[in-house]
Amino acid sequence: MHKSDNSLTGKVCLVTGANSGLGKVTASELAKMGATVVMAARSQERGEPALADVRQSSGNSNVHLVLADLSSLTGTRQLAEQFKAEYGRLDILVNNAGAIFKDRQLSADGYEMTFALNHLSYFLLTNLLLDQLKASAPARIVNVSSGAHVGGTINFDDLMMAKKYRSFAAYSQSKLANVLFTYELVRRLEGSGVTANALHPGGVATGFGSGEGMMGWLFKLLRPFLLTPEKGAETQIYLASSPEVEGITGKYFDKKKPVQSSKESYDTAVAQRLWQVSDQLTGLS
């Protein structure tokens, strides 16, 4: 991991899902580099101890907590409003919040929870903060996807999986959506000085997926072979902070290297349609 350096002094970073796992490690490492870090978390009781930990581990007091339920459009909008009201700039946005759900659940807006949290929150939050990112350029957007996107497809006929719900299929679809969103966003950001990249963190031993049926069982079985959160967070920290990727955009990274994402992820028609549907579902424009 990085030793303390001051390469991000003066920069403001927002990390979602920052109360545990990859998000918490990312917040801590960016804080060690001197950044002002805003940690978005859903609950106070998990967020406050994480905030204290990150301040202590980084030796940086410019770390702050904002509470937001990113599975809800209202919660996502409130986070964007609060952030814009309190911070004059945004240099690095790390969309990291995500989960997998064993049983089909609906968000406050009536959307399938995996799609709402893992994709629509990335889409809406990023778009609401774009003006601030552009004003702070060169700025970076880092979207945490997963190798699970390879098995995914965007089922426009049943996006919310009302007909047939399978937790891993829902997760794979949402992670493919992250990659498609990244690539379409890059086309729209051309010339703005804002870069956007997606990544696969690797199989990581976090609380993620624990207790979720077959997936939970699989995670327990694989736990000894999984990466630590510290190791798993390396690629997103690299994309957020390394001078080596300055100006690099529209790529999918694994182990700090750009690699090919799935065939469907490069389908511009699918990406454009997903953007339009996401725009409608979030009431963005």
Task: Identify the overall geometry.
Answer: globular
The H/E string reads: EHEHEHEHHEHEHHHEEH
Q: Overall mean pLDDT score?
A: 92
Percent strand? 5-15%
Number of helices: 10
Order of strands across the main sheet? 3-2-1-4-5-6-7-8
User: Which regions are unreliable across 5 or more consecutive residues at pLDDT < 50?
Assistant: none
- Helicity range of the residues? 40-55%
By DSSP, the count of extended strands is 8
Can you tell me the CATH superfamily?
NAD(P)-binding Rossmann-like Domain
What Rg do the Cα atoms give? 17 Å
Mind explaining what this structure looks like?
The chain contains ten helices and eight strands. It is an alpha/beta fold and 285 residues long. The chain has a single domain (12-282), classed as NAD(P)-binding Rossmann-like Domain (Rossmann fold). Helix 6 links the parallel strand 5 (139-144) and strand 6. The radius of gyration is 17 Å and the shape is globular.
